[in-house]
Recover the amino acids of this structure.
């Protein structure tokens, strides 16, 4: 074995040198797009790759070592981690960025494919994974226990080429790793904040000091209207001749929607105040318009914004000194919109119809300024979302309720969606009451809850008819927990994770998109009945007294007869002549 | 009206049964939402008997899933094939059919109660004949109490599966009264297969059945010898009685083999043995703490984790601790021991509900001949008043806690404490009366005197 390694060494070195530039790759990209309603979408993405060989030898360049070691240890083949806040407003902003593939439910969401030959082993590795990630990202991921873990069958497909990856791993390590198992967990109660962003940035090669990541400041990121951070690791294999060549790719994204007006407020005076009346444009057509009375004219056209003002920081020079061959920043605005590029260095400006792209300079800051402008053409039409979904809890009181989900298909073609619900065990759904107002349920996968051990997993394949609204309802009951199972703020309620909705690619002849996309409903708050936390001992003392009384009562019923008997026993004894009976009854 | 009186005088039972059935069916027809409303009440439906949970189990069973691989359905497996024959009770016709089934069950139970009351087992045993045997309640009154008390009536519309338990317990008692050991043990096995705790009735029912068998021997031999006075009982040769050990053994064997048969049948219906922990560990371990009228839920909500298993054991042992002592102490009045033990089970069972109280309360009337003693010397009126008070205030306090949010868990818990206290007082008073009756027989000079504990 050793000899083989020694003989193979020169070849390995050669191939390593040869492929040195190829497998270790790093790219980053920022996409900016003004949205209707005075918002700005900013999508950051950071991609790094490493070859499988270097991964197995634990040799990393751009790929974050801390994460790679966790993945290596827990035999994770593919990992998806999401931190999300807020709600994407589909009606105003249109379809979701990245087809919803890089989004999670409110709070934290994690799913991964783990290699293991036994169910038990997979659970152990999953537990290792969530605990390690919990430490790495300063999030309470370790609370994803068996009660919050589900194993979806339809909702998620691996993004990477897992089969080839496994075959490669098997060849390298010489033994099979067993089957790949998908585990999924959600933490809706987790509040995403700066302490999660800092470790996220630490995974990047420039660690937020240069390149587009220099824009990411916790104050602004978590002040946004909608925000999601994701980490995705997947193997990517390409056929090269007869064998496969595998790489491990990591993609980190930060997507957010910022309110341009609010974000540009100065740091030292963040409180919004009305402008002095002289600065406001008044609607003179109003009858009451005068010196001291003003009806402001509705805002027209495009808002003015500057990149560095919105993010509160300038965009530093490119992350990689050599520069990259792809564009670092792209801006999606109509071609007639004026864009001032503020940069000492030359930047390429590629003007196609609706997107402009820029390279970051190597040594100086970069900034964009868009002045206020009224465009001749109408605002760009935002693309309609594939499906609208909302979910509510119906009913009142803390005993029972109903879940009511509305799925709206705005398109003139039918769509297939997969609806995944993972519910905590203290919400007891009645599946026999599940009903759909229109459309059909083609497939149902249901794993019932087990008290304190397993949550409910409900996966439905639903066909939504064209241009229709489908209502999905079922009843549930709320459990009462043990007093120690309540969180400190028991009366706040419990968070129910978001439902994951996967819209399957449709029939392209009808004009349906051929790409699948995801969306998630908002998470819900479930109030549960609470016991009294203050008078525990007194309450129990009352019960104990009652039980003692009952026992004493039964004894007394017996004894009082016996005692009286004893009192009057002597004359009776003689008369009756059955002392034996009397003794027995005592 | 006259015709009605005549019918009542001629066929009182027919009239009672018909009117009971008509009331139940009319209620279900006049207010179609009433059965489902009652099904959702915590006082009627618990985790182990709820009709809605049965529907959930049926749904899973019909779709080929294991209904016991989950935390919702914990009822006996043989209900599944039975109820899957009925149409879905979510539609009005199915609901009516289910109400009809439960009405029929109630009527059968009433008939069994009638047989128990008629058998005379309450006042006469091999070694004892009550001096108050003339005061025995008419069987028709016992039946009326069962059929028309609001607890039974509401429970019938709420359709919990524990009505089957009540039915099989009554069946077992009535067969024991008729000295049919095998069928009695069989019915008791079915009852404990459904609800577990009727197993504690095995000692008292065994004693009752043995006593009735002996009494049968006596009467058959005394018919041969033609002496009709009660003194003949004393002179009976005890060697004619069947051996107690042998009797106990055969009863236990019948009981165990029936249980084994039922479990095996259940296994045939289901893909795995998971139903055993799901059905029988649920009452034993109390994973579901949904409030009910019993004493357990609050206690185990507030229980410190390390003591949980200890107190689960203590509570079950406490319930069991009445079984054998009662049947020994009341061996002269074995029916009284059965009645009292069943009452104690209904109060102390982990998932208590008012349906069991309705059944046990009516059964208590079978020993109605001693009630004059408890009403004269004990606290029957305050206890009955407390029960009425709880019946009215219980739902109100539950509403205050769960819906209005203006009360907390202690409100409902306090009312269940009072409710159970009232039931306990009734039971201990009856026990007192039964024992006093026995004592007065031995000491006739003590009749009517006050008893003081010294």
């Amino acid at each position: 074995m050793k000899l083989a390694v020694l003989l193979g060494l020169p070849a390995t070195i050669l191939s390593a040198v040869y492929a040195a530039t190829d497998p270790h790759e790093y790219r980053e990209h920022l996409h900016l797009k003004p949205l209707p309603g005075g918002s700005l979408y900013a999508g950051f993405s950071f991609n790094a790759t490493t070859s499988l060989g270097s991964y197995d030898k634990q040799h990393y360049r751009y790929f974050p070592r801390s994460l790679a070691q966790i993945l290596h240890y827990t035999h994770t083949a593919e990992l998806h981690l999401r931190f999300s806040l807020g709600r994407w407003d589909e009606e105003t902003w249109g379809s979701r960025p990245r087809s919803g593939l890089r989004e999670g439910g409110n709070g934290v969401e994690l799913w991964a494919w783990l290699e293991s030959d036994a169910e038990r082993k997979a659970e152990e590795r999953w537990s290792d994974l969530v605990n390690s990630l919990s430490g790495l990202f300063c999030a309470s991921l370790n609370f994803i226990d068996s009660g919050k873990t589900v194993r979806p069958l339809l909702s998620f497909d691996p993004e990477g080429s897992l089969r080839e990856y496994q075959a490669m791993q098997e060849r390298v390590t010489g033994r099979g790793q067993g089957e790949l198992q998908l585990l999924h967990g959600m933490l809706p109660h987790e509040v995403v904040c700066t302490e999660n962003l800092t470790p996220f940035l630490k995974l990047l090669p420039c660690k937020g000091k240069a390149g587009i990541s220099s824009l990411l400041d916790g104050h602004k990121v978590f002040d946004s209207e909608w925000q999601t951070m994701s980490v995705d690791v997947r193997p990517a294999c390409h056929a090269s001749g007869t064998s496969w060549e595998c790489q491990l790719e990591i993609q980190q994204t930060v997507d957010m929607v910022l309110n341009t007006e609010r974000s540009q407020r100065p740091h030292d005076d963040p409180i919004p105040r009305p402008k002095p009346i002289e600065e406001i444009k008044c609607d003179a057509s109003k009858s009451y318009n005068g010196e001291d009375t003003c009806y402001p004219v509705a805002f027209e056209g495009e808002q003015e914004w500057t990149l560095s003002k919105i993010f509160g920081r300038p965009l530093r020079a490119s992350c990689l000194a050599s520069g990259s061959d792809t564009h670092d920043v792209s801006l999606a605005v109509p071609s007639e919109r004026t864009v001032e590029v503020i940069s000492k260095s030359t930047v390429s400006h590629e003007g196609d119809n609706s997107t402009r792209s820029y390279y970051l300079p190597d040594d100086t800051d970069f900034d964009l300024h868009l002045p206020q402008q009224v465009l001749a053409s109408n605002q760009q039409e935002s693309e309609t979302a594939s499906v609208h979904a909302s979910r509510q809890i119906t009913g009142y009181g803390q005993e029972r309720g109903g879940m009511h989900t509305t799925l709206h298909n705005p398109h003139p073609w039918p769509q297939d969606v997969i609806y995944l619900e993972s519910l905590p065990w203290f919400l007891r759904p009645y599946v026999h009451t599940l009903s759909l107002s229109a459309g059909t349920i083609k497939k149902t996968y249901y794993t019932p809850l087990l008290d304190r051990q397993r949550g409910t997993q409900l996966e439905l394949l639903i066909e939504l008819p064209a241009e229709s609204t489908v209502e999905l309802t079922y009843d549930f009951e709320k459990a009462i927990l043990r007093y120690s199972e309540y969180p400190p703020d028991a009366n706040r309620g419990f968070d129910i994770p978001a439902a994951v909705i996967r819209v399957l690619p449709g029939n392209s002849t009808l004009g349906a998109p051929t790409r699948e996309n995801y969306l998630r409903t908002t998470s819900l708050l479930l109030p549960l009945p609470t016991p009294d936390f203050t008078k525990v001992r007194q309450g129990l003392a009352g019960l104990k007294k009652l039980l003692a009384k009952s026992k004493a009562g039964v004894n007394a019923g017996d004894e009082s007869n016996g005692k009286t008997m004893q009192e009057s026993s002597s004359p009776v004894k003689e008369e009756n002549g059955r002392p034996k009976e009397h003794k027995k009854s005592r | 009206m006259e015709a009605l009186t005549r019918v009542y005088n001629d066929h009182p039972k027919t009239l009672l049964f018909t009117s009971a059935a008509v009331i139940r069916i009319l209620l279900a027809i006049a207010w179609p939402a009433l059965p489902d409303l009652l099904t959702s009440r915590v006082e009627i439906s618990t985790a182990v008997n709820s009709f809605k949970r049965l529907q959930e189990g049926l749904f899973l069973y019909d779709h080929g899933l294991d209904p016991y691989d989950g935390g919702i359905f914990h009822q006996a497996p043989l209900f599944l094939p039975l109820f899957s024959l009925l149409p879905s009770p979510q539609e009005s016709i199915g609901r009516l059919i289910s109400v009809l089934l439960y009405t029929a069950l109630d009527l059968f139970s009433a008939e069994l109660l009638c047989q128990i009351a008629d058998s005379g087992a309450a006042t006469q045993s091999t070694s004892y004949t009550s001096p108050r045997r003339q005061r025995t309640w008419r069987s028709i009154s016992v039946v009326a109490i069962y059929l028309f008390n609001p607890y039974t009536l509401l429970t019938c519309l709420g359709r919990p599966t524990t009505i089957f338990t009540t039915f099989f317990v009554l069946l077992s008692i009535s067969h024991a009264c008729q000295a049919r050991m095998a069928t009695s043990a069989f019915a008791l096995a079915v009852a404990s297969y459904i609800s577990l705790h009727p197993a504690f009735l095995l000692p008292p029912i065994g004693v009752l059945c043995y006593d009735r068998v002996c009494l049968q021997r006596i009467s058959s031999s005394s018919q041969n010898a033609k002496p009709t006075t009660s003194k003949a009982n004393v002179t009976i040769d005890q060697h004619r009685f069947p051996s107690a050990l042998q009797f106990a053994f055969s009863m236990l064997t019948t009981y165990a083999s029936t249980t084994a048969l039922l479990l095996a049948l259940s296994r045939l219906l289901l893909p795995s043995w998971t139903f055993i922990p799901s059905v029988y560990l649920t009452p034993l371990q109390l994973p579901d703490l949904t409030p009910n009228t019993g004493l357990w839920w609050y206690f185990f909500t507030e229980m410190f984790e390390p003591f949980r298993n200890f107190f689960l054991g203590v509570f079950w042992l406490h319930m069991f601790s009445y079984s054998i002592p009662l049947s020994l102490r009341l061996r002269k009045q074995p029916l009284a021991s059965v009645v009292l033990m069943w009452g104690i089970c209904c109060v102390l069972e982990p998932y208590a509900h008012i349906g069991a109280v309705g059944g046990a309360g009516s059964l208590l009337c079978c020993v109605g001949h001693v009630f004059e003693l408890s009403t004269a010397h004990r606290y029957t009126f305050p206890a009955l008043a407390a029960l009425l008070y709880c019946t009215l205030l219980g739902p109100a306090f539950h509403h205050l806690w769960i819906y209005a949010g203006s009360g907390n868990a202690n409100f409902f818990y306090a009312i269940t404490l009072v409710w159970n206290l009232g039931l306990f007082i009734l039971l201990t008073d009856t026990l007192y009366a039964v024992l006093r009756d026995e004592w007065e027989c031995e000491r006739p000079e003590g009749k009517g005197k006050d008893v003081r504990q010294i």
Summary: DSSP finds 22 helices and no strands in chain B. Chain B has one domain: 2-280+294-446. Chain B touches chain A through 65 residues (CB under 8 Å).
